[in-house]
Design a protein that fits this description.
With 429 residues, the protein is an alpha/beta fold. The chain has 2 domains: 9-50 and 329-426, Aspartate Aminotransferase, domain 1; 55-328, Aspartate Aminotransferase, domain 2, CATH 3.40.640.10. It is built from 15 helices and 15 strands. It has helices at 9-14, 40-43, 52-64, 76-88, 102-119, 140-145, 149-152, 188-196, 222-233, 254-258, 285-293, 313-328, 331-347, 378-389, 411-426, and strands spanning 19-23, 26-29, 34-37, 93-99, 127-131, 161-164, 201-206, 236-240, 264-267, 279-284, 355-361, 364-369, 392-393, 395-397, 400-403. The radius of gyration is 21 Å and the shape is globular.
Length: 429
């Protein structure tokens, strides 16, 4: 019997919400209804569902090479995809390590950071700095550096991590785009460095734009200041762009949008348009060369890490086709062009009962709702259930509803999304 992930299994199995098909921006429910997908699956199907180009690429790859050992042997598609990502990524992020998910991309980045400092002769650099309300997947390291307490509560002591404060400020409620207030919160990194010692810190990891916790945005100048402090103290900066990578902020990466280049970049989700599990960790050349120079004989493994399905041929085929679509249809640019319309639509909900805040950037937004006592997720869950019945899939997490439609969305789809939300929220008891 299926034990479902991140799901209230009891309620779901008592009242199943089953999806049996998908096309474009819509799902097909088991009872035959078209359901608009307002979150691109789980932030991953940015080019829309059932893209024929990806299906052809994957089918051809299965018929040619279904699997190739990831250790000690290669196949052309993995090298081709790595070079493609390198060409798209910000300058000097040149080396790509493949995994199977965003969680694994983060786990790879954390191990890479610790190993890097060990090889540099500073093995005491083992501590990580995450951020409150951050989400970095569900593996051991990612759970540790994540800043959502409920995700850590069951697991006891994890990896040595301290956390920066989050950037969600009441003074910034109902901001359009990046908030103006809060850049000074970056100075808390200086405080943590002084308290714990730069010589003990391996890396700082943040999402440029936090998605899972409710689209929490960086104040103007905040990411630039984090970069400056990390550079000053010789600390690696890791960007988790599992959600924002490949167009979600209106450019290929949030690093491009915000003009801040990290030392390591974590990617997944839209990399294959959600069609196959895949993650990627992209490192600066100097990090890669440190492993190579200290790797011993040429036959020796420089970085003892990897997965059976790292760079899987079928995942590579899906990713190469997805990136073709992204570039040929100029979908990142389309995301940026639709952003003002999306912004006006989501902020049109302001004034409805129980709405405490609305946040947005590009084609990404969140609606924060007043909670029931001791039940922060109840009201968003009730809204999401009512939306489903009205033909809208909307994601809820904690006290927020998140919206991030595919880049092929039309304006009438945006209108439909927020009209349904207006009807449902506006009639809450």
């Amino acid at each position: 019997m299926y034990w479902m992930p991140y799901t209230g299994n009891r309620l779901m199995k008592d009242n199943p919400r089953m999806i049996v098909g998908a096309d474009g921006c819509y799902y097909l429910s088991a009872d035959g209804r078209r359901i608009f997908d307002s979150l691109s699956g789980l932030w991953c199907c940015s080019m829309g569902h059932n893209r024929r180009e990806i299906a052809i690429s994957v089918t051809s790859q299965i018929a040619t090479l279904d699997y190739s050992p990831a250790f000690q042997f290669g196949h052309p598609q993995a090298f081709q995809l790595a070079n493609r990502i390198k060409e798209m990524a910000p300058a000097d992020l040149d080396y790509v390590f493949f995994s199977n998910s965003g969680s694994e991309a983060v786990e790879t980045a954390l191990k890479m950071a610790r190993a890097y400092w060990h090889l540099k002769g500073e093995p005491e650099r083992t501590k990580f700095i995450g951020r409150g309300k951050g989400y970095h997947g569900v593996n051991f390291g990612g759970t540790s550096v994540g800043g959502i307490p409920s995700n850590r509560a069951l697991y006891g002591e994890l990896v040595d991590t301290v956390h920066l404060p989050h950037t969600l400020l009441r003074d910034n409620a109902f901001s359009r785009g990046l908030p103006d207030k809060g850049v000074e919160l970056a100075e808390d990194l200086e405080v943590l460095v002084e308290e714990h010692g730069a010589k003990n810190i391996a890396a700082v990891i943040v999402e440029p734009l936090s998605g899972s916790a409710g689209v929490i945005l960086p104040p103007v100048g905040y990411l630039e200041r984090l970069r400056e402090i990390c550079t000053e103290h010789g600390i690696l900066l890791i960007f988790d762009e599992v959600i924002t990578g490949f167009g979600r902020t209106g450019r290929n990466f949030a690093a491009d949008t915000f003009g801040v280049v990290p030392d390591i970049l974590c990617l997944a989700k839209a990399l294959t348009n959600g069609c196959a599990p895949m993650g990627a960790t992209v490192a600066r050349s100097e990090i890669y060369e440190t492993f190579m120079v200290n790797g011993g004989p040429g036959y020796a493994t420089e970085f003892p890490h990897g997965y059976t399905c790292s760079g899987h041929p079928i995942a590579c085929a899906a990713a190469l086709a997805a990136l073709d679509i992204l570039e040929e249809e100029k979908l990142a640019q389309r995301c940026a062009e639709l952003a003002p319309y999306f912004e006006d639509a989501i902020h049109g909900l302001k004034g409805l009962p129980y709405i405490l805040d609305i946040r947005n950037f590009a084609l990404t937004g969140a609606i924060q709702l007043e909670t029931y006592p001791d039940e922060p997720a109840r009201r968003p869950a009730e809204v999401a259930q009512d939306c489903w019945e009205k033909g809208l899939y909307v994601r809820y997490a904690g006290d927020c509803l998140a919206v991030a439609p595919p880049f092929i969305v039309e304006k009438e789809d945006i209108d439909f999304t927020f009209n349904v939300l207006n009807d449902v929220i506006g009639t809450l008891p």
